[in-house]
Amino acid sequence: MTDSNPNAALTAPSIPGDALPPVEQHAQQYATVRNAHETELIEDYVELIGDLLAHRGEARAADIANRMAVSQATVSKMIRRLNELELVTSKPYRSLFLTEAGQKMAETSRARHDIVLHFLRALGVKDATARIDAEGMEHHVSDETLAIMQRFTEQQQNN
Amino acid sequence: MTDSNPNAALTAPSIPGDALPPVEQHAQQYATVRNAHETELIEDYVELIGDLLAHRGEARAADIANRMAVSQATVSKMIRRLNELELVTSKPYRSLFLTEAGQKMAETSRARHDIVLHFLRALGVKDATARIDAEGMEHHVSDETLAIMQRFTEQQQNN
DNA sequence: CAAACAGTTTAGCCTTGGCTAACAATATTG
DNA sequence: CAATATTGTTAGCCAAGGCTAAACTGTTTG
Ligand SMILES: [Mn+2]
Ligand SMILES: [Mn+2]
Ligand SMILES: [Mn+2]
Ligand SMILES: [Mn+2]
Question: Cβ distance B57 to A11 under 8 Å?
């Protein structure tokens, strides 16, 4: 549980920069990231399906494959998983639809995604870059940071 | 390559929110994220090894396992990979060291990580939260955004 | 309405990144 | 210095998320 080399002070170089965080806190950082990685792809699928339903009226596997730049086989497998998780309903060869739980997840993810995207634009990041960055960052932004981003964006707009 | 349902405008609901980006751009978002995921764990290992070397004088597998909250077996396997990638050198039962390439990656990752962390703190995020968010966000921040974050932090400090 | 095309599913493969259990090497200590 | 504790390695397992190739279903069109 604790670091080896107890007499670190004796061997450490002279310019240590920022200190290392305590082991438990440091471990928490990585664990939180691993956790986010478990859910983020699911969130992106559900969010995209919600967007396709909202903007196109239907969400076909082929559209998802094209929009994600992934093979149709990959999408088909993932749809089975979403089904098992009871996030979508699907009849073979028909459009997907979101369950109640799926709609809730889609809304939450969409809202969070928008906050991050609008924040980056408010910061001065070009739209195309902001979109790319937001797609990855969104899954690693705490509620605390999210709230601050939202306030920042609003203040920026009242100027 | 293009969406199905060409007469989307006819079937789309009345509150479309932000429009969907063009397929190619949308695909690029997800592809960039997938790309980042391929390298981020490697970067975190190399960065941590660099930090342990800087602050402790040595980087032992057990320390990495504790700091990452991961089993020693997982670390051992990853070290083999880092060796194959020629990012670290290691003798059995001895401390790890970074190769030239490893040092370069560690520096780059550390710098990027610090910019994101300091930016979040400058935004007003609590330290513990900022550390957690930065650990995940850092891998998804473009150079463009990174530069803007750095400027923001500096301006905040000159107040 | 049959053929061609488009969309979907399945099977089987691969890599990554986790884990536990068992074993091996080194370090610490009675 | 032998016994014990710590550290490191190996083997074998698993799930996730990619892929290609082949089969199947549904739609469009000559
Ligand atoms: Mn999203
Ligand atoms: Mn995303
Ligand atoms: Mn980092
Ligand atoms: Mn990280």
Answer: yes
- Ligand nearest to the backbone CA of A139: 2
| In the predicted structure, residue B16 carries a pLDDT above the cut 60 | no
| Coil, strand or helix at A43 | helix
Q: Residue A32, CB, less than 7 Å from strand D?
A: no
Q: Are the beta carbons of A58 and B29 separated by less than 8 Å?
A: no
CA angle B136, B140, B142 (to 5 degrees): 140
Up-side HSE of residue A47: CA atoms within 13 Å toward CB? 22
**CA–C1' gap, B26 and C14, in angstroms:** 27
The gap between B55 CA and D5 C1' (Å) is 26
Q: Which residue segments constitute the domains of chain B, with CATH numbers given?
A: 24-157 (1.10.10.10)
Of B8, B57, B144, the CB nearest to A56: B8
Categorize the per-residue pLDDT at A93 as very low, low, confident or very high, splitting at 50, 70 and 90.
Answer: confident
> pLDDT at position A18, please?
79
The beta strand positions in B87-141, using DSSP E, are 88-90, 96-98
**A32-85 pLDDT, tens per residue?**
999 999 999 999 999 999 999 999 999 999 999 999 999 999 999 999 999 999
Token pair of A123, please? 């910061």
